[in-house]
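Sequence in, structure out.
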Amino acid sequence: MFKLEEGTQILDADQFALPTGEFDRIQHVSVRFLKGKTPKRWKDFSDDESNWASLPLEEAGLMAEQLKNAIIDGKVHDVCLSFEPWGEDYFLSVDFDKGWAAILYNACDECAAAPCDPDRPGGLEDAPVDIGGQTPVPKMCGVEGLEKAARIVLYMLETGKLSPETKWAVNLEGDLPWLFW
C-alpha cells in the first residue's frame, strides 16, 4: 500500500531547481549490464574518478548510444548517473525489471524526485520493479516501457536535467516521494 509523502509535490521538470552540488553536468557513470550483455565497445571505467566527464565528446556520444540501446534491449540491470566525481551524493539511480524502471533522483537530504503519472490506473499498487532490489515503488512512480526509461536516462546524461517528458514527484526534504507499508 502506498501514498504520496505529505511534502511531495507533482511538478514539471522545469518547475523547480534541481540541486546538483558543485557540478551541473554528470561526472560519473556506473552501469551493471546483465551477465554477458555488455556492449562490445563499452569502456569499463566505473572505478575512475569523473569517468564520464573526462571522456572525449565523441566517445561519450558513442557510449550514450550504446547505453540507450542496451536499456531498450533489456540488457541493463541498473545505472547510476552522478554529479559527483566518485558517484556519490547527487545521483540518478535506475533499476530495471520486467520491462519497468524505478528511477529516483537523490540529492542527499535536499531533494528526492521520481517520474510520476498521478492519473495512472492502479497507481498506488506495487510496480514490478524495486529500487536497489528492496525499496518498493508505486506504479505511478515507476516507468513502464524501456524506451521511455532510456529517453529519461539519456536526457539526464546529456543535459544534467530531469526529463520534461514526464511529471516528477518531488520531495524537497530529501525523503522518498512516497510512503509504503
